[in-house]
Design a protein that fits this description.
It is a single chain. The chain has six helices and two strands; from the N terminus they run H-H-H-E-E-H-H-H. The protein has two domains: about 1-95, Arc Repressor Mutant, subunit A; about 95-130. Helix 1 (about 15-25) crosses helix 2 and helix 2 (about 30-35) crosses helix 3 (about 45-55). Helices cover about 60% and strands about 10% of the residues. The model is unreliable at about 1-5 (pLDDT under 50). A two-stranded antiparallel sheet has the order 1-2. It has helices spanning about 15-25, 30-35, 45-55, 80-95, 100-110, 115-130, and strands at about 60-65, 70-75. The longest helix is centred in the C-terminal third of the chain and has 18 residues, at about 115-130. By secondary structure, it is mainly α. A hairpin with a 2-residue loop joins strand 1 and strand 2. It is elongated and about 55 Å long.
Length: about 130
């Protein structure tokens, strides 16, 4: 029996900000995470603690006890989160069309010559893989 692929990893804005704080400072306390969220988000300590517990239940973070403190760390990396979120956007907004997503980005964002050269290089490499 083949294992089912895990569903795409999607996180909300606050969860992403918390993960970014934990990627920057692993083994962070709730106070550390709350401080990292400021000045963008002025949240109560209890709000951050609750969110960390919910994220732990989802397997996004884990904690260990040190004295009376819980030290949190991310259990997922930025690439996993980025891939899950990108896959979700392509599926949901572009009906799975990678060309549609790239076309949208090229029409709506500033793009440098260097970025276009890099995209061309990536396309050539992808074509070699499927030839």
């Amino acid at each position: 029996m083949t294992p089912h692929p895990s569903p795409p990893l999607r996180v909300g804005d606050l969860q992403l900000r918390i993960l970014q704080a934990l990627w920057a400072k692993p083994d962070a306390t709730v106070t550390d995470v709350n401080a990292a969220l400021k000045p963008d988000r002025d949240l109560a300590y209890t709000t951050v603690a609750t969110m960390l517990r919910k994220m732990e239940a989802r397997g996004l973070v884990a904690h260990r006890e040190e004295g009376r403190s819980f030290l949190y760390r991310a259990t997922v990396d930025a690439q996993q989160v980025g891939q899950g979120m990108t896959d979700h956007v392509v599926e949901r907004f572009f009906e799975g069309s990678l060309a549609g997503a790239v076309s949208h980005l090229l029409r709506t964002r500033e793009v440098s010559r260097e970025e276009l050269d890099e995209l061309e290089r990536l396309i050539r490499a992808a074509k070699r893989r499927i030839s």
